What we know:
Pfam families: fn3 (PF00041), Ig_3 (PF13927). By secondary structure, the chain is mostly beta strands. Helices cover 0% and strands 49% of the residues. It folds into 5 domains: 30-114, Immunoglobulins (Immunoglobulin-like); 124-210, Immunoglobulins (Immunoglobulin-like, Sandwich), CATH 2.60.40; 226-300, Immunoglobulin-like (Sandwich), CATH 2.60.40.10; 309-410, Immunoglobulins (Immunoglobulin-like, Sandwich), CATH 2.60.40; 420-520, Immunoglobulin-like (Sandwich).
Amino acid sequence: ECRLFFPNRTPTTRLNGTWFHLTVQGSDLLGIPPMNQTVSEGEAVTLECISKDETARVVWYKDGLPLGPVGQRAWVSPGGSLTISEAQPTDLGLYKCEVISTAGQTQSATAFLNVKYKARVIYTPKKVFLPFGRPGMLECQYSANPPTTKVRWEKDGFLFDPFNVPGVYRKNGSLHFNKVEETHGGEYTCIPTNEIGSIGASEPIHVVVQHPPVFTLTPPNIYLRKPGDSIQMVCDALDGETRPTIVWFKKDGSPLPADRATISGGNLTISDIKESDRGMYQCVASNEAATISADTELFIENTSPRGPHNLTGESGQNYVTLNWHPGLMASSSQFSVAVRAVDSQDWRTIRVTGNRATISSLDPGREYEFMILSQDHNGDGMFSKPLRMLTKGSASDAQVSTPIGINGPLSGSQQIGPPQRLRIYLGVDGYILEWDSPSYGAEFLDRYQVYRAEETSDYKGEEGLPLVQDTTDTSYLVGDLQENSIHHFQVKSLSTEGSEGVSERYILHVPSYQKAETFSLF
């Protein structure tokens, strides 16, 4: 009702009131919703949810999930209210009741149930290993509502206050050791407390000070083996008086060959080595305190074919026919014929198959030198001994010369000259071999190949040299060399279309006073 008053008149009011009718439109389903409540552990609590429609159905949710079977400790009344006889810490959460009519209409309301309980330890390990001489931590996992106000630690039945122990501090209830010592071993318990109280101390935690493993033997950085060989990769470690657990892995994640690999005393043995065994290996030594590792790499040495031998030839006026024995792995080998005129420094290289080739387009009455290089899927092998032959006729019979070839000339785009001016000098990191680019065909250069060998009682430098490196640079780091030794070097240039040029061979003498002399073999 709205009524008008006149304070300065008599009477102060008259029949001038106006009435308004207020209608509140509410749900026809939910009569009494649940309310937020706080209870202590063990107390009973009821979350009301009363429907106006007796035929409606009530469904409860906890933390967004349907409430499962409530069991003997809780029940839902016929009216829809949820009652918990003895509240537990796990009952804490957000509850929602949803009323569903027979016609499918719904209405819901939520309430938060807070359960207060004493601080308690959730989990502590029975035994903990701390690494001697390294940082360590002793954790106490606890729960409390309200939150804890303090965490008390005891060691061997006495108060263990980190403030009185150098190098030890407490953070979030856990004990942290800057550097574990032998005196830190013992029986520990933790006691969390909040404003309500504490359930009590944890189960004893047996702390053992463990020496971390230390390698007493590690594998070398590199192992080099041939296919079919066996290898033993060494590794050993100690952690005080005992030996830690030692295992081996391939760092690329692939398994060790179960039928060919064994581990004994820390050493890894692999028999009948295959190409798939190449790669990085890791020896891992571990105990309860720490884990350490050492790496090594296994290289598989490619078996290059033996240099061709018994090189013979038959000359004509403009050609030379060569024959040779192919050496090892003949079934899969290819060959390159290197040829030059003796009075010239330029080598030509021609690829052939089989163990016979006719080199044509030669000048009459001119001496030529030939070498055969064996090749297979593993790469280049070794050169044969050089063979010199004089073509028949005389120089006066020579016409305009054409490039050396097999049964005909090669196209100019396929030709490439040999590397020029090989030289060796002593640098900071050892001896360095350098050379200049080919005098012609350099625009077709694909790469260089460096060949080298050291003279020994078994090798006098008469046969071809083994390949040691492919490179696009014009230098090669030889490194340190032993005094009073002799080393042979040769560099080959390869074009993108398969043509090759071979340099002169250089010989390096390393005297006892570590100065080098170089000279050309030819």
